[in-house]
Recover the amino acids of this structure.
């Protein structure tokens, strides 16, 4: 039975919302557990679809995985299986981050390519180049990345672009290589710092976490550990934008406001009052009284404005006073959802990696289709500011990344429901 979210627009969202661990951290930390034989425990994990899907990938590699609400326990075997098959890999993109750990631990990996994505092409050339420089041979055979290395050795690696996934895979291979690896133009996302912290707890020697230069001194082996996943800054940003768009007042707890500096600064420019919170947990509060003013957004790798937040920026622009220019620099097809927002009356034009949005007072509810996690959440935000009912279909995308999304929206006063019914088209 297909499900959709029924959003009745018009409510002002008010209240407190807790954010748990980041999807884009926990999935990589689960893969990192492959690096050490024994039991690794992760806490503050989000209860989202992608976590059990990643657990299946790890089970296929010989791990025992237990998920108990926010706690994920992974027992990594003495000899993991080095083949990750298409059936489990194809269900989530992040599965590709088992590549680095498998090469490091088994010196061989055959990892099925997860395939295309609705946000644009996602090649693995930088992942493969990095592994080659560490001494592995890699290539694509029968739909799989095949990597093999008798010995991994340290290397100086320059990334063409600070790719999150390439940085993670190369890092996770380099921690068990002989000698020192330097990754230059490395990604600086908070999730990269999180994985570095966990690897350090496991015994890895890493310098420069959070900077563009990561220096890794390889060690012989790592030990399992217990680690608390950092709060999800993208979910935090979703709530921040929801407050601004609905002229609401939301306190977001469980996420480091420092990870959202640019988002919060943009909201201040749009007219919101933003304050940081330290008790009972760290977080921030966004209060918006009038209609948001138009602001421009440019997506860039961290600390730039995250591409994952771009659909929320377009949604904000759609109801803001004035004209906004949103520029997407990370994924070439990440404006696909704009057509769905136009179905709701948004006055938007895309041209290549630019989108010009002339804000209107009120959107108008319509049936719309989510094409990825963030596009789906952005359409829900748009629905909150629309006259009448918006039906957001293909909500399994949203369930992949947002724990308790509907329940949290309801607690904040939104009139939203999850509805099980066959689609009308
Ligand atoms: N790229 C290459 N070659 C490579 C690797 C990347 O050309 O070998 C390009 C990509 O095509 C893209 C750019 O580099 O144009 C950035 O890609 P990156 O590797 O940084 O992204 P990713 O690791 O595939 C992660 C998140 C995405 C998030 C991006 C950017 C996970 C599981 N996914 O993807 O999150 O948008 O970083 O911050 O961590 C989401 O959560 O909805 C999501 C898509």
């Amino acid at each position: 039975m297909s499900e959709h979210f029924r959003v009745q627009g018009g409510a002002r969202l008010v209240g407190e919302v807790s954010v748990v661990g980041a999807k884009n951290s926990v999935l990589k930390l689960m893969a990192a557990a492959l690096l050490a034989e024994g039991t690794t425990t992760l806490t503050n994990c989000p209860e989202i679809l992608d976590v059990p899907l990643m657990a299946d990938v790890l089970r296929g590699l010989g791990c025992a995985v237990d998920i108990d609400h926010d706690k994920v326990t992974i027992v990594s075997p003495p000899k993991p299986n080095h083949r990750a098959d298409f059936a489990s890999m194809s269900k989530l993109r992040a599965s590709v981050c088992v590549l680095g750990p498998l090469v490091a631990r088994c010196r061989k990996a055959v990892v099925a390519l997860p395939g295309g994505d609705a946000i644009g092409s996602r090649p693995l050339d930088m992942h493969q180049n990095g592994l080659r420089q560490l001494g592995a041979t890699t290539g694509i055979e029968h739909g799989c990345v095949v990597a093999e290395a008798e010995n991994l050795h340290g290397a100086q690696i320059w990334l063409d672009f600070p790719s999150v996934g390439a940085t993670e895979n190369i890092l996770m291979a380099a921690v068990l290589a002989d000698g020192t690896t330097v990754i230059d133009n490395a990604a600086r996302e908070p999730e990269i710092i999180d994985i570095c912290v966990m690897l350090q707890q496991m015994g890895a020697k890493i310098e420069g976490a959070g900077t563009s230069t990561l220096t890794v001194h390889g060690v012989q082996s790592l030990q399992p550990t217990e680690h608390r996943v950092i709060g999800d800054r993208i979910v935090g940003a979703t709530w921040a934008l929801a407050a601004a768009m609905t002229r609401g007042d939301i306190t977001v707890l469980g996420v480091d406001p420092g990870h959202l500096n640019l988002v919060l600064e943009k909201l201040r420019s749009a007219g919101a009052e933003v304050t940081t919170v330290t008790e009972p947990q760290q977080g921030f509060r966004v209060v918006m009284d009038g209609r948001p003013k138009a602001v421009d957004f440019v997506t860039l790798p961290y600390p730039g404005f995250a591409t994952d937040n771009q659909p929320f920026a377009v949604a904000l622009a759609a109801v803001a006073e004035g004209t906004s220019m949103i520029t997407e620099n990370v994924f070439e097809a990440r404006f696909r959802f704009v057509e769905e927002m136009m179905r709701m009356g948004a006055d938007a034009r895309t041209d290549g990696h630019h989108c010009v949005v002339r804000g209107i007072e009120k959107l108008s509810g319509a049936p719309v289709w989510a094409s990825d996690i963030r596009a789906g959440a952005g359409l829900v935000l748009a629905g909150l500011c629309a006259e009448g009912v918006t039906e957001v279909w293909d909500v399994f995308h949203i369930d992949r990344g947002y724990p308790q999304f509907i329940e949290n929206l309801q607690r904040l006063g939104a009139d939203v429901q999850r509805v099980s019914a066959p689609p009308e088209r």
Summary: The mean pLDDT is 95. DSSP finds 14 helices and 26 strands in the chain. The first helix runs from residue 23 to 32. The first strand starts at residue 3 and ends at 8.
